[in-house]
Fold:
Amino acid sequence: MLLDASESQLVLIDYQARLMPALHDGAAALANALRLAQAAQQLRVPVFGTEQNPGKLGTNDEALKALCQKTLAKMHFSAVAEGLGEWLRPPARPAGNARSLPKHLQKPAAPAVSERGSIVVAGCETHVCLLQTALELLEEEFEVWVVTDACASRTERNRDAAFDRLAGAGAELVTTEMVVFEWLRTAEHPAFREVQALIK
Structure:
């Protein structure tokens, strides 16, 4: 099972400037999050961000925030509790009452809104906000792909315990390069050179 760019959305959780220096490998996690967001932009994958209690913890890294279509300010640790699921799943189209009309007068049914059900997620702290968001996305029946080298916690032990729990719950654990090259699929992709340059 490979990731497909046309079915993916990217969620970047709480890369807040005040939080990052306190995290183990925080700078590396942020660098990989930026690579993911830049690749997503090149490949037309929607990108969303979240910020935990931005009044106290500040906003996300400015370069990263600029790559997000929208950023959700939240107080719950899980972004799903604050409405992230509604951003990721388009609203159902209301059904009309055209069934009562003769067939030749009925309008053709509107095509279903395409749903991007593969959620690629990365963020901080892995064992708190990322974990709770990812578990609730799984409950909402999304496919969840956690980008391990773009995640950080204050300690490795907390981060790794979160990865164990997420894998046990059904999330796929991947790396930045795995995501990017699965989105590309081929060296003949029109954006291959630009996206490959992000990794080098």
